[in-house]
Amino acid sequence: MSAPTSGHRLRRTRWHTLILELSRAQPVASLTAMVWTTSLVMLACGAYIAVASLLRTGFTAPGPPFWVGVAACLGGAVIFLGRRYYRKWYYHFLQPATGLAAALGIHLDGGGTASVADASLYLVLAALAFFFFPWTTAGIHVVVNTALLVLALGSVPGVATGDILIMVCGNLVVGGIVGALSRLTASAVLAAEVDVLTALPNRRGTQSRLLTALAGHRAGAPLSLAIIDLDHFKQVNDSLGHAAGDELLRAAATAWWAILPPSAVLGRWGGDEFVMLARLEPVAAGQLVDALREALPAGRSCTAGVTGLGTADDVDSAMRRADQALYVAKRAGRGRTRVWTPEDVVDQREGERRSPQMNGPEQSSPEQSSPEQSSPEQSGPDQPWLESQPSMRSDSGSSASSEPSGPVDPSSGASSRSMPTAFI
């Protein structure tokens, strides 16, 4: 079999980019919000169909619409109970599935005012689609559900053409209003989570993305976190002025974001400190950070600590381990990347005992590490992929485990991408 040509790779990349764009949720549509909203809507719609069916039959033997409603309620309960395993892209299947269930209920109602009343459920689906997703994606969902609505109402007697047109127009109007309000809310959310200087997520925005990524992290899937600290940033501010320091921060953010993989998160944690989250093994993530170090302006350097994340991790434990690795890397001479090992906890304790005067208010630096960030009493969950491997220094100056890993192509990300708004 011949290797794929550059044209094939380009088309595949374009399709992948298109799929990611269509799957991207609004900033206000967090995973928690989507799970709760979807499950509650399915429960409410299912309960409506079931109760309406019983009322129409005088609480006699339940008919098919009743069981459709019960199935919708069960679906909502399953989504809620399995919320830990829920993914945002699941909604692209749940939306048409719910529309199909509503169409089946309309058809089984037998026509007339009962079917028209049940068709109002599509207004809820249209509102959710425009609330959760961009205009294009939401429009696709509404077109599919509107087609199901028209087919369902057209298949039963006693429904006038005017009733169908009213329901179709209602879907568009309600969806448009909710979509506009959602985007106004999203603008406010983004404004509060974006660092004005670098256009990257600020500490609040980065933490939100870290929490989302950890909530959706599956066992066995690679995920690594890195703390990246610009070296001698205070000297840049003192000797060249704060304008030069600001320009260095902007240049670093622009250069790094251009070469990161599309699924990575990069945010400014505060001061001269950045945080990166990537779906890579720790050693591969360290190689990616090495590429970021090389992308800095001439004469500038940075130091980084990297750690892998497990399903039992939280943001605090991951940040603590990455900060411990960063501490050891700075003590070794800066301008390098280090992957966390259990020995880093001991090294940090020894460094603090030998140089207690070096502790200061800022994080991630041996001369400026806060007690909260540098406290090593908890080393996080075991990381078997690192514990059994000796630490070694690579030619590029990075310190990582000797476990072999495949090459990392940091240029796989599109250089023309916009700054991040979500971790996909």
Outline type = elongated
Which sequence of SSEs, written as H and E, runs from N to C?
Answer: HHHHHHHHHEHHEEHEHEHHHEE
Total number of helical segments? 16
Q: Kindly provide the name of the CATH class of the largest domain.
A: Alpha Beta
Give the count of structural domains: 2
Strand content: 5-15%
If you consult CATH, what is the topology of the largest domain? Alpha-Beta Plaits
Structural class: alpha+beta
First and last CA, distance: 32 Å
Low-confidence stretches: 1-13, 15-23, 354-424
- The radius of gyration over CA amounts to 27 Å
Work out the number of β strands: 7
Please estimate the helix content.
Answer: 55-70%
Q: What is the CATH architecture term of the largest domain? A: 2-Layer Sandwich
CATH superfamily placement of the largest domain:
Reverse transcriptase/Diguanylate cyclase domain
Largest beta-sheet details: 5 strands, mixed
Average pLDDT, rounded to a whole number, is 76
Order of strands across the main sheet: 2-3-1-4-5
GO molecular function: diguanylate cyclase activity
Region (Disordered): 339-424
Transmembrane segments: 33-54, 66-82, 89-108
Biased composition (Basic and acidic residues): 346-355
Task: Give the secondary structure arrangement, pairings included.
Layout (H helix, E strand, L loop, with lengths): L5 H18 L7 H26 L7 H18 L9 H19 L2 H7 L2 H12 L2 H20 L6 H33 L9 H13 L8 E7 L2 H8 L1 H18 L5 E6 L2 E6 L3 H13 L7 E7 L6 H17 L5 E3 L3 H12 L16 H4 L9 H4 L3 E3 L5 E3 L23
Parallel strand pairs: 4-5
Antiparallel strand pairs: 1-3, 1-4, 2-3, 6-7
Helix pairs in contact: 2-3, 2-4, 2-6, 3-4, 4-5, 4-6, 4-7, 6-7, 6-8, 7-8, 10-11, 13-14
InterPro entries: Diguanylate_Cyclase, GGDEF_dom, Nucleotide_cyclase, Rev_trsase/Diguanyl_cyclase
Protein name: Diguanylate cyclase (GGDEF)-like protein
Organism: Quadrisphaera granulorum
